[in-house]
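Tip: read the tokens left to right.
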């Protein structure tokens, strides 16, 4: 009973802050409100908070369904024309992240293994797991680096995009098309979703609750050329609150682990990386003028796919473009760059 009250109190504080942020016009209120309030209250008060993993998972599933609904047959076909740009952007960002890891190493005094694995924008859980395989890597610092990068990106990028001309892309599913709801299509989606979810959990793929519905929706809508379902606005708001509350409580007892030197290195290297992503996005608008600077900037930003997709939803950026670029980067880092660098670090440190 006590845990239930603590969870309810956590939700009420998170939701209330979202309402306040929305009322005063702060961008991404339902994500940033819970995140900022719970982070500050956890660090500077003795109030107890608790947030079940299940609520975060539910939030990610509904966000995944909404993101997946943007993958129409036409948008998936157009993605192939963006493939060279995905490769260029991903290699550029990974290359700059590796260079910044050297700067981080000089500023913080951490090992090369810690600096490299903490700087790669490949997902918190996966980078921490890789760091545990390298003896000289400090998993705690890698966790702080990855978590703080998401925090910096989630706070800086949305405020920056709020000053940009808003996109005109409509990320909602047509109501006329949804009026012809097809139960068979929905059942196929549900079966694919469960299959992907179980498979991804077995191989420890990052964010299976988000990835499984995205891929399932994309496949069904590509084959049928018909939208499956639309997530109601209130459910999207609750989903953002669920994810934002999790992010805010993720940095537990950070004051006891984070020195001024380490904090400065994390913030500086991430701001430089964000600035590089903005420059990269500006260049790509000349190479591929079909997409806007907003589309490319959110696609390049080194944040989590869930947070950047929410940003795309709020700004009117092309959600399928943003998601596809982030998906490609995740696959590249987790399947190629991460394992190769981990192997190289092991060999180099043994030499």
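Filled-in amino acids:
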């Amino acid at each position: 009973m006590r845990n239930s009250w603590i969870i309810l109190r956590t939700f009420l504080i998170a939701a209330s802050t979202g309402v306040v942020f929305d009322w005063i016009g702060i961008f991404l209120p339902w994500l940033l409100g819970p995140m900022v309030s719970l982070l500050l209250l956890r660090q500077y008060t003795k109030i107890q908070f608790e947030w079940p993993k299940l609520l975060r998972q539910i939030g990610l599933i509904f966000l995944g369904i909404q993101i997946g609904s943007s993958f129409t047959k036409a948008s998936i076909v157009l993605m192939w024309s963006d493939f060279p740009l995905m490769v260029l952007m991903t290699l550029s960002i990974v290359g700059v992240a590796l260079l910044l890891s050297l700067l981080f190493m000089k500023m913080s005094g951490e090992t090369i293994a810690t600096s490299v694995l903490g700087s790669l924008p490949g997902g918190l859980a996966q980078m921490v797991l890789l760091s545990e395989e390298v003896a000289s890597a400090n998993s705690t610092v890698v966790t702080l680096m990855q978590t703080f990068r998401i925090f910096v990106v989630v706070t800086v990028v949305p405020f920056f995009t709020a000053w940009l001309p808003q996109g005109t892309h409509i990320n909602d599913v047509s109501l006329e098309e949804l009026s012809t709801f097809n139960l068979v299509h929905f059942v196929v989606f549900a079966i694919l979703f469960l299959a992907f979810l179980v498979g991804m959990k077995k191989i420890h793929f990052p964010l299976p609750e988000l990835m499984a519905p995205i891929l399932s929706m994309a496949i069904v809508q590509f084959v049928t050329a018909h939208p499956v379902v639309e997530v109601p606005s209130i459910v999207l708001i609750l989903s953002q609150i669920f994810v934002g509350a999790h992010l805010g409580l993720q940095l537990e007892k950070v004051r006891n682990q984070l020195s001024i030197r380490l904090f400065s290195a994390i913030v500086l290297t991430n701001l430089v990386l964000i600035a590089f992503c903005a420059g990269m996005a500006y260049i790509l608008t000349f190479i591929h003028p079909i997409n806007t600077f907003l589309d490319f900037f959110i696609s390049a930003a080194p944040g989590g796919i869930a947070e950047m997709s929410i940003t795309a939803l709020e700004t009117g950026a092309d959600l399928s473009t943003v998601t596809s670029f982030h998906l490609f980067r995740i696959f590249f880092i987790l399947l190629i760059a991460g394992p190769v660098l981990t192997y190289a670090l092991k060999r180099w440190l043994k030499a």
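Residues 172-179 have pLDDT under 50 and may be disordered. Residues 186 and 228 are 6 Å apart (CA to CA).
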